[in-house]
Q: What sequence folds into this?
């Protein structure tokens, strides 16, 4: 296998705020794998969902500026960790390519700011990079710890797998499940794995947003999962931050850890639990402390 | 159940024609009204018109109903409908086009928090290049319904406790460069 030259890394706004644990655990995971990642210089908002609802061409311009900087910074694929950022960048590329009227406006914007046009930058999601470029076999061979914690429900959410099918299968994605199994975890069959978490609805039409998260939690528990693993900061945020408010139809309460897949991988690869952002999880802290504790560290992955 | 009869004279077929030329909206005419979109949509039970009905309203030219519906704002852009549509209609993009036109024409339900949030987010990013959750959410609440903030107390405390809320203003270095580019796009769009 040729040496991996690494990636340009687009953290996005969430990973520098409420999703900091994703940034921390992702950085630790790539360090342990020996794959260099370099942050995209002066990156701006990807122009995701809310922005797109106001002005489409400006939203595409935002992504175009990022892509233009990536082309200048040079020679590597652009990795987005947030599903909304991945889609924002990917969709801008697609629309600029397919619609001449979009391209004309975006190019006029780039030109006015003396930004070079972008060509040949490949936008990729962290899950797909870890699955395709690193691979299940390499994760398995580099893992020094075996997952001893509870069964996991892998939750992929929406925008990483739809409408583009490059990250995983849009209807039944399995790549995160395979990566979790590679480090010894058991994953449950989770039919809601690509159902929507409601995005920003939890903050706007609160009851509706929270209800969607109740359904996701209830089904994960019913399938025997003790934790949910995510690849998107908004999914993690909604399931984790609003969990304390949820009381189910039968009066049930939840205390389910909502982890990033890079927290599990980083830990299995021998990462320092203190560098994986585990203390930023709100729900299920006692389970998290137990699962990621020093006691488990001796259990090498045979 | 209240049923409203619609008449052809209330329709705006020219708008319908024009709408179908927008990027992503070209395939509306091929809709077979199968309802797969409404069936897979996790939010259709909360909508005033299901996604299938929205497509029918656009085709028939009922602009008012489509633009002032709550449906377009409840759409969370999960792309389930678009991924399953047997006619490959980009339904999520159709919803986005309606949202944009509703904002421009000020047709959204008054003090409805979702379009208010979208506009606050838009303005913040235009000025600073990045999103910051706290100021954007505060403005959204003040301009729509301040009681929303009460619903955020418990989750907010959890986020604060775990160091996930930052009061720091996130911004890019070259805001001037971004603003020049955005103005040029705007000028070009009105040309």
A:
């Amino acid at each position: 296998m040729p040496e991996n030259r690494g990636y340009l890394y687009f953290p996005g706004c969430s990973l520098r705020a409420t999703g900091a644990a994703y940034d921390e655990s992702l950085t630790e995971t790539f360090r342990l794998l020996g794959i260099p990642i370099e942050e995209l210089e002066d990156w701006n908002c990807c122009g995701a969902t809310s922005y797109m609802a106001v002005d489409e061409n400006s939203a595409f311009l935002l992504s175009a500026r990022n892509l233009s900087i990536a082309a200048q910074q040079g020679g590597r694929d652009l990795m987005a960790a947030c599903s909304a950022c991945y889609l924002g960048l990917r969709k801008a590329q697609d629309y600029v390519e397919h619609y001449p009227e979009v391209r004309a406006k975006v190019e006029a914007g780039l030109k006015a700011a003396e930004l070079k046009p972008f060509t040949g930058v490949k936008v990729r999601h962290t899950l797909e990079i870890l699955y395709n470029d690193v691979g299940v076999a390499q994760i398995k061979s580099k893992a020094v710890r075996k997952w001893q914690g509870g069964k996991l429900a892998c939750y992929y959410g929406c925008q990483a797998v739809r409408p583009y099918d490059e990250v995983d299968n849009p209807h039944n994605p399995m790549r995160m499940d395979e990566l979790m199994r590679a480090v010894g975890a058991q994953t449950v069959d989770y039919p809601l794995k690509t159902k929507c978490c409601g995005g920003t609805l939890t903050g706007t039409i609160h009851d509706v947003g929270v209800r969607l998260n109740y359904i996701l939690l209830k089904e994960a528990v019913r399938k025997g999962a003790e934790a949910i693993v995510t690849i998107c900061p908004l999914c993690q945020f909604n399931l984790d931050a609003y969990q304390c408010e949820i009381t189910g139809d039968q009066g049930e309460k939840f205390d389910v850890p909502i982890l990033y897949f890079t927290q599990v991988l980083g830990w299995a690869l021998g990462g320092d639990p203190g560098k994986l952002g585990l203390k930023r999880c709100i729900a299920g802290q006692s389970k998290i402390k137990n699962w990621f504790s020093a006691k488990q560290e001796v259990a090498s992955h045979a | 159940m209240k049923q409203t009869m619609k008449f052809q004279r209330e329709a705006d077929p020219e708008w319908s024609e024009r709408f179908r030329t927008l990027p992503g909206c070209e395939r509306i005419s091929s809709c077979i009204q199968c309802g797969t979109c409404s069936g897979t949509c996790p939010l259709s039970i909360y909508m005033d018109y299901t996604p299938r009905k929205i497509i029918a309203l656009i085709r028939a030219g009922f602009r008012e109903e489509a633009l002032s519906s709550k449906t377009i704002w409840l759409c969370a852009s999960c792309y389930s409908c678009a991924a399953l549509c047997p006619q490959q209609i980009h339904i999520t993009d159709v919803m986005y086009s309606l949202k944009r036109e509703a904002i421009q024409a000020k047709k959204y339900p008054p003090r409805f928090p979702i379009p208010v949030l979208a506009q606050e987010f838009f303005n913040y990013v235009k000025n600073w290049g990045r999103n910051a959750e706290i100021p954007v959410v505060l403005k959204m609440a003040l301009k729509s319904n301040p009681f929303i903030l009460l619903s955020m107390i418990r989750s907010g405390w959890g986020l604060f406790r775990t160091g996930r809320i930052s009061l720091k203003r996130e911004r890019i270095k070259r805001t001037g460069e971004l603003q020049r580019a955005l103005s040029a796009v705007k000028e070009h769009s009105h040309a």
